Amino acid sequence: QQQVKQSPQSLIVQKGGISIINCAYENTAFDYFPWYQQFPGKGPALLIAIRPDVSEKKEGRFTISFNKSAKQFSLHIMDSQPGDSATYFCAPLWGNTGKLIFGQGTTLQVKP
Amino acid sequence: NAGVTQTPKFRVLKTGQSMTLLCAQDMNHEYMYWYRQDPGMGLRLIHYSVGEGTTAKGEVPDGYNVSRLKKQNFLLGLESAAPSQTSVYFCASSYGGGYTQYFGPGTRLTVL
Question: Which of B13, B17, B34, B100 can pair with B46 through a Cys bridge, CB separation 3.0 to 4.6 Å?
Answer without folding.
Answer: B34
